[in-house]
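Interim report, section 4.2 (structural modelling).
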Amino acid sequence: MKKIIFVSHCILNTASKVVLYNQREIDAEEALRLKFVSTALNNGIQIVQLPCPEFTLYGSRRWGHVSNQFDNPFFRQHSRKILEPFIQQLKEYLSNDSFQVLGIVGIDGSPSCGVDYTCEADWYGSFEGRHGLQETLDSARLVNRKGIFMDVLTEMLKEEHLDDKVTVRSLYAGEPDKCLDLVR
Ligand code: SF4
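Predicted structure of the assembly:
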């Protein structure tokens, strides 16, 4: 039986990520990413790469965002559109006893792909001439909620009655076992 796992796009392609500057966070996530991917490959697990909703809307020069900015009908519709072919692939694998779907792995902290944690703040508007910009930027916080892409994915799993059949976890350096337990 072939084991299959679906992962957020940047677990296989970090070039899709927003440009980051916190080297400590980058190193911690990268160490876990390498461990997760190598464990999966060494255990013969097949990896399906989900599309990146941010890269496919805003490209490589995008700013970092918070989830509030993506919680709108347009971002949700884009997420649904690019997820549809992957829900179909998931259904096909689940319908065939030759395959075992181990789950879906997102990226905690992301405004899009967070599963247990996403980032939240009341961010909007231009930077130019703005008072209190630093306070606005500093107001971003991690909250126990899904990012918008993962929220849409969860809705689609429910619509297809797959939510009981598919485990959704996340890659998060602070809680490494959440993703590693799926591929060990
Ligand atoms: S939107 Fe998701 S897949 Fe794209 S870079 Fe962010 S966490 Fe990775």
